[in-house]
Design goal:
- By secondary structure, this protein is α/β, with parallel strands linked by helices.
- The protein has 12 helices and 13 strands.
- It has 2 domains: 125 residues, Rossmann fold, CATH 3.40.50; 159 residues, 2-Layer Sandwich (Dihydrodipicolinate Reductase, domain 2).
- The chain is 30% helix and 22% strand.
- A 7-stranded mixed beta sheet has the order 8-9-7-10-13-12-11.
Length: 344
């Protein structure tokens, strides 16, 4: 059995990790931790897990966690992981960071967008960006995995084939994305109150959302040159889900057959479904799936590529477990739902 520690176990992503690992056939949680609720049972915080996960929560101590666990998941606010992870910790366990501290290759870019100091820049070169569909081989031998963000996972996977196969003008990319409120975290804040989000939809992070450089970094690597794109996220009154609608100008002569061939790179990916219908978040809810579709607008010469995920599963905890499975040589789908989401 793989022994797992989760620091930040009572946030939404951490709690989803607890839920997934509670039924994983080859892993067990041995060190559940929460700074806010240390000493209390996890099921006292999340009563729905009573009988399934009644473990007493411990303090967020990565040194102790590394002594007891084979893999340590960090589900913490930006800036904390870079203070905790060290070479000594990595010599004892694999670290999968669900936060942003090791996603960006550049310390300067990180500090510019996140407005906080990065405390272990020497580890940035050792971190692997944990998007398995693109970096699977690198993940296999990694001790430090940067789990991608939710908007980024959906947007990158939706656009990647078009960029990799050079089908679009990369200077014309616009990403219009929507997220459920769980993406804002479990912390108490006015903007997340029910009365503030219900019966409404709003853009936020316009021109400065922190996932922008992450998307640009990965798509630039796919293109072989720098990409600057327009990314605008929106908050919608639902609990879970990400929908990314991506616009770009097709290069001259590109046909629907070219598009189908480009997306065929995903044919054997267990968590990507290429669908004819338009993606909907309800059909991937609770799963580690990505639903992707596209339409060509012959009138404008644009392609509209669309993707949907569950932000807490493929966009966070599920993807982290997928990465754990890869690192420890398990079947990639172990413990993760590849079945259908909600039928209605």
């Amino acid at each position: 059995m793989i022994k797992a520690a989760i620091l930040g176990a009572t946030g939404y992503a951490g709690a989803e990790l607890m839920r997934i690992l509670s039924v994983h056939p080859d892993a067990e949680v041995v060190y559940p931790a929460s700074h806010s609720y240390a000493g209390k049972k996890f099921s006292d915080i999340y009563p729905g897990m009573k009988g399934a996960m009644d473990m007493v929560l411990r303090e967020d101590d990565i040194s102790k966690a590394a002594e007891e666990a084979d893999v340590v998941f960090l589900s913490l606010p930006a800036g904390l992981a870079s203070q905790m992870v060290t070479e000594e910790v990595l010599s004892k366990c694999v670290v999968i960071d669900l936060g942003a501290d090791y996603r960006l290759h550049s310390k300067d870019v990180y500090e510019t967008w996140y407005k906080t100091e990065h405390h272990s820049p020497s580890l940035l070169d050792k971190a692997v960006y944990g998007l398995a569909e693109i970096h699977r081989e690198a993940i296999k031998g990694s001790r430090l995995i940067a789990n991608p963000g939710c908007y980024t996972t959906c947007s990158i996977l939706t656009l990647y084939p078009l960029i990799k196969q050079q089908l679009i003008d990369t200077s014309t990319i616009i990403i219009d994305a929507k997220s459920g409120t769980s993406g804002a975290g479990r912390g108490e804040k006015l903007s997340s109150l029910f009365c503030e989000v219900n019966e409404s939809i709003k853009p936020y992070g316009v021109t400065n959302h922190r996932h922008t450089p992450e998307i640009e970094q990965e798509l630039s690597e796919a293109a072989g040159h720098g990409i600057v794109l327009q990314f605008t996220p929106h908050l919608v009154p639902m609990n879970r889900g990400i929908l990314s609608v991506c616009y770009a100008r097709l290069l001259p002569g590109i046909t629907d057959e070219d598009m189908k061939k480009a997306y065929s790179i995903y044919e054997n990916e267990p968590f990507i479904r290429l669908i004819d219908a338009l993606p909907e978040t309800r059909f991937v809810k609770g799963t580690n799936l990505v639903d992707i579709s596209y339409r060509i607008d012959k009138r404008t010469g644009n392609v509209i590529a669309m993707g949907a995920i569950d932000n807490l599963v493929k966009g966070a905890a599920g993807q982290a477990v997928q990465n754990m499975n890869i690192v420890f040589g398990l079947d990639e789908t172990e413990g993760l739902s590849i079945g259908a989401g909600s039928p209605f």
